[in-house]
Amino acid sequence: MKASLIISVYKDVEALEAILRSLECQTELDFEVIVAQDAKVNCFNEAITAFIQKGYKITLLQQEDDGFQKNKILNRAIVASTTEKLIFIDGDCVLHPAFIEKHLECLKPNSFCAGKRVDVDQKTSLKMRKGEMVTPTFFQLLFNGSNRIEETFRFLIPFKGNSKTSLLGCNMSWNKADLIKLNGFDEDYVNPGYGEDVDIEFRAELLGLQKINTRYRTIQYHLFHERPQREDQVVLSHILFCRKRENGNYRCKNGIVKEQSK
Q: Above pLDDT 70, what percent of the chain?
């Protein structure tokens, strides 16, 4: 297989079902799926079984629901993956048909890819969740008041603008060997909203990896949901990141391999 698609999830069954429907429409179908659930609740079994029956390879990883431990389950997914190219998305992001194809096209040796997302409005999101549509058109998003709809524009050539675009954990791809060198994601980050993607981006650049901007190529649709207040948690993660940044180490100690005692 050409790629592993790693989907970070919690308990949103409808959203995962919407993602799986979009995977059936991909222009590149030679991939495996790893559902990385930061919980241990068997709510996805029916959706996963139906996907397997259609001939797709999909694995479910789970861990105890012990607060925000996204990086821990992502590290387990890295180890469990069977391909060299790993694509990461969040469990509320539905994919454009060319999403996997474009990530594979853009990801080169000694690099990682950073894409963006469209924030889909509530009305359109509900239709996607219910299976009334797989992916929306530009005009549906426009008339229903979605945000960042410019991210639906598809460029057939590489986008050269704003090379400093920040990495989003919901739309990125890596070479597995590079993630191993970085020791994966830093599991010291136990608060959502900041750090899990900022940290690995900083360390990747320390390692000398090139960030490739895949905006307008790896298109995804972020389903509407209420956003909890996370300001206090973001502050804590930012303080942690600043301290780690001062150390200047590209390899984290609390990652795939636990190195604190060394």
A: 95
